Amino acid sequence: MGKKVLITGAAGFIGKHAAERFLKEGWEVTGLDNLNDFTYSAQIKYDRLSSAGLDVKPLDGGAHFLKSGNFSFYYADITDQPSVGALIMDGGFDLILHFSGMTSVSASSLSPQAFFGANVQGFINVLEGIRQLPPEKRPRLVYASSAAVYGNQIVRTLIDADRNLLTPDSIYGATKCMMETAAQTYANLYGLQSIGLRFFNIYGPFERPDTLLHEIAKGLEQGTELSLYGEGNACRDYMYIDDCLDAVQACCDKWLPEGASSIVVNIGTGSPYKASDLILKLETISGRKLRQKRVPMPKGEIVMLSAGTTRFNQLFGVEPKVSIDEGLKRFWNWHSRYYGQGK
Which of 172, 203, 240, 273 is catalytic? Predict the structure, then answer.
């Protein structure tokens, strides 16, 4: 019998690609997602599932379960503790990738309760589901944190082992900090092992339509005007989705260093790019010129993010392979095809 993985947030950007990667590796994949449209249209979530091999039409008729080959999908909410607990108890999983949650700095400020519910309570439901299992039957747990835990920092490179740098200035970042604390506490009290992944800016096909790269590509395709924060000097650490999945898989395979019960690591490249640089690169790739206007930076938005990756590289031995130019080219080609269909 093949290995079994539960992926929460399977209709999300990283979750969809993780499902495809593990299916390709021969795993039995179970996905869970509530397909909400809270921060962006749910259509791309349905399209992600279709792209991963599922027939999503039965969902329109009220179906709550889909299956195609080794991919099973449950239409369910991560905040539904009985459903999540039962799935973990009965699933016989070797691994849980907890990628479920709400992701938006600006939306989190408008709806704090929704973010605390989905991100914090949802994660507690997963931890509790695992805790109820005998220790020898507990799956490995890898969960999504975020670079938003750092807030705005003066330091250029953010070191994942330095907890003094954890100063979130958004509700979203605060929920991720609370998840990390919960994971460490469950490790200390119950021996529940986990690895947290502080994702920086992961990008690629099927990424969320509320990102800067999407807005740049949309502006280039449709001739619309981009609202650019400040002078476009905000720096982000961009990692292509294939490199991200290599990092995720390395964590799952090599697991924790000896003597550790719970760790958190940065997932990024360590090479940040300004928004203005990304615009120039995509203008070159597309052969078009972007219309822009300058707007003030909103509260909670981060000016500089650069992942310190030394510890991750030492522990797991994986480094990014896809250059920013190659990654943006792949992203542009997908974006043009997908949104050229009237999505």
Answer: 172
